[in-house]
Amino acid sequence: MTTRPRRLRMATFVVLPAWALVLAAYVGTMVWTMQISFTDSKLLPVDTYVGFDQYERLFSSTRWLVSLQNVAIFGVLFIAGSLVVGFLLAVALDQHVRFENTLRTIFLYPYAMSFIVTGLIWQWLMNPGLGIQKAVQNWGWESFRFDWAVNREMAIYAVVIAGIWQASGLVMALMLAGLRGIDADLWKATRIEGIPPWRVYLFIIVPMLRPLIITAVVLLSIGVVKAFDLVVALTSGGPGIASEVPAKFIMDYLFTRQNIGLATAAATVMLITVASVLTPWLYFEYFRKARPRGAA
Amino acid sequence: MSQPTPANEVMEPAVSVRDLAIAFASHRVIDELDLEVQKGEFLVLLGPSGCGKSTLLNAIAGLLDVADGEVWISGRNVTWAEPKDRGIGMVFQSYALYPRMSVRQNLSFGLKISGVPKTEVDARVDKAAQLLKLEELLQRRPAELSGGQRQRVAIGRALVRNVDVFLFDEPLSNLDAKLRNELRVEIKKLHQRLGNTMIYVTHDQVEAMTLADRVAVMRGGTIQQLAPPQEIYRRPVNLFVAGFIGSPAMNFFEGEIVAGEGPRLKVGDAMVDLSRYPFSTNVSPGQRVILGIRPEHLAVGPAAVGSVEVESQVHITEPMGADTIVWASFAGESITIRTDGEFNARPGESIAFHFDPARASLFDAQTHLRL
Amino acid sequence: MSSPRPTVAAAAPLERPANRQKSVERGRKPKRLTPGRIGLYAFIAVAAAFFLLPAVIMIFTSLKSMDEIRDGSIFALPQHLDFSAWIAAWSTACTGLSCDGIRVGFWNSIKILVPSVVLSIAAGSILGYALSFWRVRGANVLFAILLLGAFLPYQIFIYPMVRGFSLLGIYNSLACIVTIHVIFGLPVMTLIFRNFYAGLPQELFNAARVDGGGFWRIFLYVILPMSTPILIVAAILQITGIWNDFILGLVFAGRENLPMTVQLNNVVNTTYGERTYNMNMAATILTAAVPLVVYFVSGRWFVRGIAAGAVKG
Question: What are the transmembrane regions (chain A) (predicted)?
Answer without folding.
Answer: 12-34, 71-93, 105-125, 154-179, 200-225, 260-284
